[in-house]
Amino acid sequence: MINKPSDISVSIVTFNNIYIIEKRLIELLNIFKLSKVSKVFIVDNASTDGTADFIKNIAQRDKLIEPILLSENRGFGFGHNQAIALSNSKYHLIMNLDATPKTNETISKMVEYMNQNYDINLLSPLVRFPDGSIQFLTRNEPTVFDLGIRFMGSKWFPKRQNKFIHRSDGYDHKQIIRNATGSFMLFRLKALQEIGGFDERYFLYMEDTDITKSINQNGKAIFSPDFEIVHEWQRRNHSASGAKLMLKSMIKYFNKWGWKLW
After folding, report:
1. Cα angle at 139 between 146 and 203, to 5 degrees?
2. 3-class secondary structure, 125
3. For the whole model, what pTM was predicted?
């Protein structure tokens, strides 16, 4: 099935990515064009390293790109919401700059699958590291305990941590996903707009968990291993500043959805 040019839009949020953006966009734009993507929104969160100027220049050469250059950094969700508000496609792909579809047909096949399954509003693929190993991202809806022990390290309550990430049963079959990764999320745009996009109270972390829960309130968020991407994952919450941001986002999440301790 060939997608119509207006079927798919994409948004990528950047912040001080000048060291990788040219190489990544060259690779991704080829995939986007083969996938009949109609518009690629590159949202820059007030970079200070020349990223915004590069985006502006490449957008002048390639009309597929629409730059959104923000004057301040208000976070991952806020950035993507600027693109969501301007999109008029059937599907909208939220992705990170360092995520790559495994094949040139991955996006098209995901769209075809959603065209055949009208109750799916979010489709999440299998995510692998560059070495081919699986990233265990088919996670349960979090509790305070689950997130707390993950801060402490993998040696604490390993059975519970493995259950949280569905290590033994979460990566070989289609299933409803409660906690999808924000590195690559294909949404039915109408459903995404109906829930108001991302909750902008989260600057970073938990916004993907939050939006997965919101989608599941009115439809289905589905994980499928039939579609794969490669993601060079950077876990910033290992730093003190990242941990502080994560803690703030956790509090906001549980205040919104209820404090489930165990």
Report:
1. 75
2. strand
3. 0.93
